[in-house]
Amino acid sequence: MKHNSSVSMPQVEEQGLSADDVQSRVTNHQVNRADTKSSRSLLQILRENVFTFFNALIFSAMVLVLLTGQWKDAVFGFVIIVNSGIGVATELQAKATLDRLSILVASNFLVRRDSKDVEIPGEQIVIDDMLWIRSGEQIPADCKIAHSYGLELDESMLTGESRTVRKKDGDEALSGTTAVSGLALGKVVAVGKASYAARLTAKAKVYSKNRSDLNEGINKILKVMTIVVIPLCILLIWTQMRTVGGFSQAFASGHWRQAVVAAVAGVVGMIPEGLVLLTSLNFALATIRLARKNTLVQELESVETLARVDALNLDKTGTITDGGIAFEQLIALDSSNEEPSHADQHAQHAQHAQHDQHDLEQRAVDVSGEDNPNATAEAILKGLDSYTKSQDIEARLPFSSSRKWSAIRYADGSTWYLGAPEILSSSIASTESSQQSEDQLTQQVEQLASAGSRVLLLAEETQTHTDSAEREISEKLPGALHPHALIACSERIRTDAKRTLSWFRDQGVRCRLISGDNPATVGAIAAKVELTGQQQPRVMDARKLPEDIHQLASTLEDVDVLGRVLPEQKKAIVEALHTTHHVVAMTGDGVNDSLALKEADLGIAMGNAAPATKAVAQVVLVDSKFSHLPDVVARGRQVMANMERVASLFVVKTVYSALISLGVVLTAIPFPYLPRHITYIGSLTIGIPAFLLALAPNTRAYKPGFLSRVVAFALPSGIATGLSVLLAAWLIPEMMHWNLGNDADLNAWRMVCAIILFVMGILVLCRVARPLRSWRGILVAAFALIGILGAVIPPVASFFQLIIPSGRLMLVSLIAMLCAALLFAAITWVADRFSSHRQAESELSQS
């Protein structure tokens, strides 16, 4: 249920605070403000993108190279600065977008000030304000009830108990609790950090870094690299100093500069500097793209969860239907079985039936005419707007989603009930014809529900209450009710529902329709939108669900539609699906969905949802369009599938850099390429291609095991690349009779090694970008061509110290490249065969 701001409030004597009173409390900081930003602060964004361990390592390496005077070899440091800048700028744009959307979905509250009711944001509420507590609202500040009009609160978020609590004048209403039905005027007694709301909304809405397969995988990679990089860095410096005659001679001759530059080349190569930045950048870009389609992602890491969803629980109202309800008809029951014996009797009966119809419609308006009616009651009032509410109503029990009925008592002592037929029918009075009447009633209800109508029963208590002490209506149904009429309402199905559900079926996501309405009604709507395609959806009444969580999980495998689901059952359904290792998304817009949304891996709320529901959701569809969900899931899958490609590229560089560094340390040779070489090669085979591949369309369903797949790809590719460079570094000087102590020979040797590294980088890129019969093949060819052209453009070649081999060296280089390519092909072929064999064994064992 959601509140309706157009409903007039009851007349009260309280004037509320004056403008001066409010200003005084604002000055004294007695305002309901708490830090509940839905996105990170500028400081957090800067810290996570700039002040990282690896950026500090890179910066230190850049400073070392600058101290040697070889500023061209320090260009890698500026690449890191540019990458960090892009990451910060993108996340700031994402933050601005999220904050803008947060304002769109922010909730206002009604307070009484200067004898007038005014709507204000929750953060403008002050101590001693008179706050209207309306159905569907999460109370923003602690209050003491001054006037209660049948207010019922769901305190489950505080107490863990799902039952609603009736509040009377003088009772306490804590922030964080949710108004399920009724209305009340309360005096605010605690605001901001002093209230429960500060802790609840902060926990639900503030940016939080969830544990995820992607983040855990990257963190493990970084942890291993931290252990490897530092000792290798020390060993590289020691080794490179030895190649120029030791520390004393190196400092005396000035060759220490060359040793430092060479050591830095190894360190820079081992650091997957762009991986963390590209991850946060990818998340931020995904949130911006979703925001353009009016989808607010309140936690960036939720983008990953989107990719892993394989079970989607859909709330009917507001998701499959647009929330709009229209009154169809009121069907009188009292005289439906009477058979006229002649014309006069028939005419007399028709006149009596017409009188009953008007009287019943008046009763329906009276029961529905709460101070804050729900959507169904509003539809009845709108459909029967020619009637005005009676003045002789002495007591009222507002509708409650847990009871599923409401009631009024007139001054003459008669009590009328309106609610779910299956609930009220349990109290129908026993008479000789009651069984026959009940069977006919059930048949009529099922007939209307099977057509997709929402059916309510209007009934009267057979006992008349004349004692003034009995005026208050009990929350328990009486023992004897007499059914008078059925009321049929219909819901408008979203035009995009069928198409959206079809997309989820094609993507292998199991959708279930869950609702508090009649199972037959929900089943009829599920059939209309083809929830299960051409098959008839399997429908079940939630009151028959087992309580044991494992039995419930087993039952759910054979159920597509659930009706008469209670709020605590929605949460239990999510928990049961978790026991069978499903990644569950839950949509909803009502207060009764908030518990399930919080329990789900991904809570998705509609933009017109109750404040409590939006507060606990990770994703909010701002314009309440169900058709955005495929975009949401597809964007998550794109991020995860592409990040797997990207991570593989970076980890390959880490593997071959570590292997080459180890080979250099063990054989005490100069490092086979310069930092400027790895900057040039890394940009063309890893950095820029990774950025473009990360943005490519990709709807592949995500499977757990991100890290194991990345390592399985990176190890053979990295080992093949590292061995190729090391073999060339060891053999070519012998073949060419080079003296690596000579600068000309050393530069030529490093150029050949850099060329082999570039060729291997292109082969790795080919493997990552597969299939190549698309724009990806053109991408690889373009970067290979750019790399070659750079070597023949004088300014580029001079800056990066690129030399095209000639003569015998050209022949030796071509042979080395061919051998390297064959070695790469052999190692990766064996690795692929081994991986395929292990996958086949795994699938066989699972089957």
Automatic annotation (TrEMBL):
The keyword Transmembrane helix applies. It is a multi-pass membrane protein. Residues 110-203 form the P-type ATPase A domain. Keywords: Membrane, Translocase, Transmembrane, Transmembrane helix. It is found in: Cell membrane. GO terms for molecular function: ATP binding; ATP hydrolysis activity. GO terms for cellular component: plasma membrane. The chain crosses the membrane at residues 50-68, 74-92, 221-239, 259-285, 646-671, 677-698, 710-732, 748-766, 778-804, 810-831. It comes from the Bacteria. This is HAD-IC family P-type ATPase. It comes from Bifidobacterium aquikefiricola.
